[in-house]
Amino acid sequence: MKNISRNSKIGWVMLFAGFGMALELLLNWRLFVPLLIGCFIIYYWKSQKFRDSKKMYLIIGVSLVFIPLISTAVFKIFIISAAIYALIQYSKTKNQPKKIIVDTIQPNQQTKIKKKIPFIKNMLSGNRRVVNEIFEWDDINIQCGFGNTIIDLGMTMLPPGESVVLIRGLVGNIQLIVPIDASVTINHSAISGKLNIFNQEEELLNSNVIYYTDGDDETASRRIKIVTSVVFGDVEVRRT
């Protein structure tokens, strides 16, 4: 039997959690009655012609639906289990960062693509190592979730102009290795953590900072714009 993918497992868990919540709501009239009233109020608001003047109905209806849902025991168990799972995955990946070494080729100018799946994809948690892979350069836009991440652009053949690297993470450190001949702009935001730009380190607490390197950013043939944001974690940018 083929192994079930992680996304499929998460989908099944969410399906069973939704089924359990629905069953608990049906068996507990103290939760089911407010939920039913809330659905009726939302339906009444939606059927009205002038909805803007009746926003209070929408607020009351959504509240009556939302409160019973989060009051179910299944929802509380699901949230606690998800938090424990996230902590376990983070502890596994803390000392085993995902390392991505990017080696690119020049894009084919004659190819017309309406939809393209990026080579580097989102990862909520887990280990990943990509080494010596060749692909056409695309701007990087990923979410890392939990764990440390390393992206190595040191040997990358960047196209002329500006290349964008956008990374969002929850908990964990991010390390970016950039080519020595590329001009770099960093826009970083964090709740708590350190920012190390070419060995210049500073502490951040619920703040964001924009860092420019080199005085000839506009005239450089190859430029990298890095946008990073983490809740808790350090970010380091260094050259090859």
From TrEMBL:
Q: Show the InterPro entries listed in the entry.
A: Cell_wall_LiaF, LiaF-like_C, LiaF_C
Q: List keywords of the entry alphabetically.
A: Membrane, Transmembrane, Transmembrane helix
Q: Where is the Cell wall-active antibiotics response LiaF-like C-terminal domain?
A: 126-237
Q: Origin, by domain of life?
A: Bacteria
Q: Has keyword Transmembrane helix?
A: yes
Per the UniProt entry, the signal peptide is none
Q: Which residues cross the membrane?
A: 12-45, 57-88
Could you identify this protein by its name? Answer: Cell wall-active antibiotics response LiaF-like C-terminal domain-containing protein
Q: Identify the species of origin.
A: Siminovitchia fordii
The top of its lineage is: Bacteria, Bacillati, Bacillota, Bacilli, Bacillales
